[in-house]
Design goal:
Glutaredoxin, 2 domains, 5 strands, alpha+beta, 11 helices, five-stranded mixed β-sheet, elongated, about 10% strand, about 260 residues
Length: about 260
Amino acid sequence: MLPLRPLFAFAALFALALCGAPQAVSAESFSDGQRGEIETIIKNYLVSHPEVLEEAMTELSKRQAAAEAAKHEASIASNADAIFNSPRGVVLGNKDGDVTFVEFFDYNCGYCKRAMADMLDLMKNDSKLKIVLKEFPVLSQGSVEAAQVAVAVRMQAPQKYLDFHQKLLGGRGPADKAHALAVAKDLGLDMARIEKDMASPEAKATIEENFKLAEEMGMNGTPSYVIGKQVVIGAVGLEGLKEKIGVARCGKATC
């Protein structure tokens, strides 16, 4: 059912169109009897032409999508340096690529585990793609702990971050401090330094920066992406990501 006030507003416009009245009329200008008659006219019209509602909803969806895209584009523009070039992000692929693909992830996110294969496929097969990974631990305290270890790995041995990322995100069981430290140890890292760096101001600042960026862009889950001027929320699959990259690269899904 249409909300009552918008219905009255529509009624007023409909009545004006029928009567040819030039002046503005509000819903309150009608008597109860007049409002009842107008509502009946509208109801009968909509029953006879239900496609009008579908057309209206389609147009509303288009306008909402356009407004959301414009909002995302503005957020990206105002935070571009931190999104694409922050030294706290982990850069993979072609650091001079023509499109930057930024992924916000949580080590306990099941969708992120599946999306990791998409990211690796893109990195392998798109030589012009720059990939930036950002820890976004939204699901649990274990996620926060795992993200802190990940930042410590990046601080100590950025060349081993991808191995760490794959092993922890692709591993079984929940990701937490114990699991993350076990992976770091398996990679031969200095564990005393890992423990120290986990609690460092840099680790805290990295996670806070990522949360702030996600909030600015309306990200409420993982995985979420920034691809060119687009914000993509949720696991859209490999083909969906390729289409977004194509739009960023040449303005269409397939270049």
